[in-house]
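Side project, low priority. Logging it here so it doesn't get lost.
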Amino acid sequence: MDQNGKKPVIAIMRPEVYVVKSRELAESFGFEVVAIPMIELEDMKDEYFDAFAENVFSGRSDYVIFTSANGIDHTLSKIPEDKHSEFIDALNKTNVVAIGPTTRKQLEDLGIAVMGMPGVYSSEGLVEYLCPDVKGKQIDTARSAYGSTFLISGLRDCGANVLETKVYTLTMPNGALQNELITKSLNGEIDVFAFTSSMMVRSFFDRAGALCEGESIREVLENSLVAAIGLPTANTLKEYGVEVNVTPDEYTFKEILRVAKAALEN
């Protein structure tokens, strides 16, 4: 709370599926929450999914990488329900790698054993973690259409054969709610902005631009606490001329809240 006993207001712009848990977590840190999605998730199935599934079922996969809990959910949604147990059994016969603790927990809750995860929860961290052991190996990954290209190119540079399937994509909602977030921001009603992806940054500025408030919203951010979940998101904010105040060492939403709260108290 500030000197007047007012809780700091944080803007959470994560997809609708995360709103309830994100709000509860932010409130546990002492924030008042404005939760308006600036990105949404949309299921997709590309031409590589069947080959991905066949690699897992047949045991050809040496490693299977999941980079988000959403990736797991959208993968399973494409496997026939009567084949779920068989698919999970097949995953348990390979080396399943999770990008971070949230993804790991989702896998383990489904009964999928996780071989490991990197020290740094990012594509760069995954490449560094796996590179010494993957030459000549088959790596399969199911993830977002907006996943970092470095994961694929980095693992191939390490000598791995990589098959990527994109199981969901991200969209940018542009309705009255999103306009409301820009208006609240311009009115000085937000103290902290928590950006958790590059696309979220672009969506936020697209909305501001559509309202002819691009420069004004930049000034708002200059006078607020801006938190980015990791380096790629921070770099995207810099492309828009925004200075990032805090970035957590661990790329999780809980950590972004913790470092933001600590920064306000210092």
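Brief comment: The chain has a mean pLDDT of 95.
Revisit when time allows.
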